[in-house]
Structure formats: C-alpha cells, structure tokens
Design brief:
Radius of gyration: 29 Å
Structural class: alpha+beta
Oligomer: single chain
Mean pLDDT: 83
Largest sheet: 7 strands, mixed
Helix content: 25-40%
Order of helices and strands: EEEEEEEEHHHHHHEHHEEEEEEHEEEEH
Number of helices: 10
Number of strands: 19
Low-confidence stretches: 158-167
Distance between the termini: 58 Å
Strand content: 15-25%
Amino acid sequence: MSIEVKIPAVGESISSGVVSVWHKKSGDFVDAGEALFTLETDKVSTEIVAEKSGVLETRAAEGQEVKIGEVVATIDDSKSAPEEKKTEKPPEKKKEPDAEKKRVEEERKTPPGKEKPLSPAVRRIVEEEHLESEKISGTGKDGRLTKGDVLAAAQGQKSVGEAVSFPPSAEEDRQAQPETDRFTRRKMSPLRRKIAAQLVMAQQTAAILTTFNECDMNAVQELRAKSQEAFTKKNGIKLGLMSFFIKAAVEALKAVPVVNGRIEDDDFIQNNFYDIGVAVGTERGLVVPVVRDADKKSFAELELDIAGYAVKAREGKLKIEDLQGGTFTISNGGVYGSLLSTPILNPPQSGILGMHKIMPRPVAIDGKVEVRPMMYLALSYDHRAIDGKEAVTFLIKVKECIEEPKKLPLDF
C-alpha cells in the first residue's frame, strides 16, 4: 500500500514552502520517524519525517516550491527493509581500470533501438528544433543530454549570427543556470523574501527613530572574568554578554513600560510579560528566536536558551513557535565588527536594542582621561507610540545596569 507524503501545515499564514533538500532518494528504504526532506518556508526551515516505514518515491524536485497539502512523495509500506538491504550489499570483485573505463563508455552509449532519456526541457527543445537526439553527444550523468547539449546542437543548425532563445523553464533551469563571469542569478529563498518584505513593511508602516548612547563595559568584563570559571563549572556553559543585556533590557522595560508594547489598529497593546527576541544570523538569513519570560530566568537559564537557539538556527531546526510572540528585540551587530548602526524594528514590536563592537576608547573618568572598553548602544523605536524622552530614559537605564551590574538581579 502506498502512503502519500504531504506538505504539513507548519504555522499560521504559511501557505507554501520550498523542498530545499531531500535526505533520502527515490528507491531508498526509510524507517518511520526518519527525516525525508527539509521544507524551507518564509519563517523557518523544518525537517519532514516519514510516518511509516517503506520504500520512498519522490515526486517533487529539490528547489521546487510546494503548497501546503501537496503530495511530494509516496511510501510503499508493503516492502520490508532487511531483504532489500541484504541484496544491496553483495561482495563485488575489484574491477580492473580498463574494465571500469569500458563499462563507463558502454553506459554512455545508447542501446540500439532505444532513445536516450530526456528531461521535459530537453525534449521540448529537441521537438521544436527537429533535432535527432541519438546523434547528439550527451555530457550529463551516464551520457544523458543536458539543455546545454541540445542548445549547442540547435545553434549548429542555425545560420551564422542568428540567435537561439528559449524561455526559462522547468527544474533543469534551476540546476543549469546560464554561465557568466559577470553575475549569477538565483531565486531568493522564502525566508529571505519574508525578511525583505518585513523590513520594507516596517519602514513603511512605522515612524522609526533611533537614539544613541554609549556604555563602559569595564565592570561587566571584570565580573565575567571573576565569575567565569565557577559559572562554567556549575552550569556547563560560559557566561556571555547577551544575558547581561537581556537582564538590563528587562529592567529598562519595567522602568519604561511603553517600550514593551505595540500598536494594533487604533489601539495600543501594553505587554506585562517579557519575551525577548534575540537576533541570530544564519546562512539562510536573520532569524529572531524568543527567550520566554526572561524576567523569571537566571543568567544560566538565559545562556542555555540562547545557545540552544543558536544551534537550532544553524541546523535549520527552529520551530515556528520559537519565533512568535516576542515583545522586544536585541540585535548584536558587534559580533560581526559593527561599530554603530540603526537597527530596524521587528514588527509588530515598538522597540529594538542594537549592541555593537567593544572598542578601547579614551574617556573622561573623574576629570582624568582613561582608556576604557566602550560600546555604542542604539535604540530604534516607533515614534507613534514612544516619545523621545521615554526612549532616552530607557537607553540610559540599560547603560546604568551595564556599567553597574550590581543593579541587576545577579544569581551566580
């Protein structure tokens, strides 16, 4: 009996995704619970697993966009694994180089009376240009014809200077893009398209303003150095900077509650909880997993949450619920060397705090010039909901908590 593998619903407002990579191929035996492919949506990437054991037959190609509920594969659960796996591993004699070479050459040849297997795109060109496919030398796998092979053959039939053009088509175009040294064209991933849309929407729908300040990181650095060994030994994770800034942001949100709210239609929603989003950069783009109830968590719990999200983000295993419901966001451009920037709001939130690179700079301390490790801070906020005085007060509160960490609820 064949079981259909359908694209599951992975979150509200998500109607489609892209099959980014198949972990199993057609004809492979898969076990129940084994990952079949990775589905990339405009919010997260998630692995889709087999519901039952059997032999897989794929129907969607890598890179293909698919709709929720669409059938992308079938699993024949009437076939079992042991017999097939045993027959797949017979002892083979080592082939001589000449014999192997001869085998490859024979595979590239077309058996008499049979046509070479053609992809839809290749077959279309062959038919339109009235080409004889058996007379064209294939450069693809096992001697198969590629689009480039038939285009070259078609060009040979044209008069000198006449252009051959075909509209972009099919799955083969995704694998064989036109070669050029000047540029490379590739389709944006759903996640990158969503990020682009969100950033533009934030700029168009909010009155974004940024205020700046700087903080002396000396006290935090000394406290970390003093407590690092005991903290790591006790909790199995290092004491980082982000936990200090999450704690400081929570204290500032409590002092200036309006920054922890959002505008919804004609209403202002005041959040009385503190779910802090922490921006994480990945190869697929920027994602913002949310640390829940940050005000109730210890430094160790915050560091464990952050580390766990970072690993899941890099491996593409974040769930949709990991990214939803944040009330405020912190972005650390300093890890990439950014000295100063103006972060863009993460809708529908009204505020985002930007951290930056720690730089030794001369500052005046008690009338004397000293070199201190300084960091620029940036708070971007929605001026429709937050006034300048409130924004500055918030940023100064963060600065005070970082420069005097004893104002934070230290629990290590």
